[in-house]
Amino acid sequence: MSTSPATSVSDSRYFQPNFLEKVKIIVHLTGLHHKNTVLEKCILASKKNRRISLIKTRATKREQHCNIEHLKDRNQQNWVHFVGVGGCGLSALALIAVKQGFEVSGSDIKWSSFMDGLQQAGVRLHIGHSTLNIQSENGSRFPNCIVVSSAISEDNAEVLHAKSIGIPVYKRDYWLAKLTENHKLIAVSGTHGKSTTSALLAYVLKSMGDDLMAVVGAYVSQFPGGNVIWGDGPHFVLEADEYDGCFLGLSPYIAVLTNVEWEHVDFFQDEEAVKTFFRRFLKRIRVGGHLIICGDDVGARSLLDYTSEGSKPEHTSGTMLVTSSDVDGYNIITYGISSTNEWHASSICPNSKGGSDYVLCHKGQPLANISLQIPGAHNVLNSLAVIATVTVLLQGQRQVHELINSLKLHLLDFIGLSRRFERIGKIHRCHIYDDYAHHPTEVYFVLQAARQRFPSMRLVVVFQPHTYSRLASLKDDFAVALSHADHVVVTAVYSVREAGPRNVCGKDLATSIISSPSEYIPSLDDVVDKLALEICKDPLREIVILTLGAGDVNTVGPKLLHELQKRLCIT
């Protein structure tokens, strides 16, 4: 099952534990707006390649009825197959392909919630990977191309078979590049905060009347398409993922950079390797474009010294201009908590909605009072990124004060997204929440958000480490971050994409947490039983249960709620 790590966390300076100091293929393809598209050229080229491949393989493939020449029929609807379609990233691209008029199919190792919407849209879905998934029932027809998730290995059966018979295989990054190249792309990047920032940005723009397209790496209940917005306008908001260099094929008009630190340790050797990829991404910004960057974040700010081929950018009143030998330049706009940023927040405080209120300032001057429903200082930063982006994007259409007045209404209406401090339910005085946090910085900030919303309640965290490599590299930082809970339950590691040695386990993390009581319970079902037993001893006690992780720990909350209802005889 493909996963796309993404969280709702931003800055690493507003709170400061020690470890945080680092801290349509093509535009509207078949018959919509652009008929002579890059993808059509790709398909024509692929058909030529497949004719060559057919000559080479006809003898050995005859028994499989590989009538690849049938793909030459221009009257046939183009067929695209997505491998790893259950993940949030590829499911969005599959849904867009349906909107573009493609015949779409897809496969994954197990069903996911994202596949529900695809099924309703008419996508043919397969559980498990097989060569049979990429041919018609009578074996006479094959996809025009295959798009593959970053989580899919090169020895995947469908990928190998497609290559053997000449079907072009594209990775997600190539498809995204072609999908967005004719749009005014706003690419939201960063180690943390991409999903919430891109979702909030797309929601606000849509609410302000922008007929945009958007792809977000999480389910957004306020999006009709779940994690997709489909529109005919020029703007495209995209959550730009750094894993596997996926964002390096993009050419954004606006790039948003929330923060930079070491993450995806299975792909990036160290923090410097992460920075190298982000520097390459910044060089992809279009001439005359904009970089909107969190000026509070040490890692993000360090990139500014490298954007200009060895020369440092010029600073002018919070706005900087970067020039280099190969581009005319792009504007840099900073945001953050610090007043040194062009856009910044002051007087931050909790509000009655469980979120935050703050005073929005521009170049030191207060402009408006902003209210959010979503909690935490990291979401204040995410909202600032959205404000800075919208004002750049729409500044020629409305006055700044008019824009801000419209913005503040829609910022308040945003209720968040799936698995980002998501409320699962409440029984008596027990509140159950879930979050995707799977990195120490993310864990720290979501715990601070929980404390903000429930300042006097006991906070019990169930943490499922995500990948052995991440746990081994960041175990001590996890221990520090989790110590802000009143009690911690660590489960077995949820492992994906890994084949190396497993010389660390959840128990090692549990014993490393010194400041708070902790225990190791490998099985999620046992965690549910243990928590239900403890809560039922004193059902009126005020307590918050918070499940954290990018694996299947999100199943604990609903199961626990059901078990408590059963044991406490509540219907």
UniProtKB/TrEMBL annotation:
Catalytic reactions of this protein: UDP-N-acetyl-alpha-D-muramate + L-alanine + ATP = UDP-N-acetyl-alpha-D-muramoyl-L-alanine + ADP + phosphate + H(+)
Mur ligase central domain span: 188-389
Native source species: Gossypium arboreum (Tree cotton)
EC number(s) from the headed UniProt entry: 6.3.2.8
Pathway connected to this protein: Cell wall biogenesis; peptidoglycan biosynthesis
Keywords: ATP-binding, Cytoplasm, Ligase, Nucleotide-binding
Domain Mur ligase N-terminal catalytic: 80-182
Entry protein name: UDP-N-acetylmuramate--L-alanine ligase
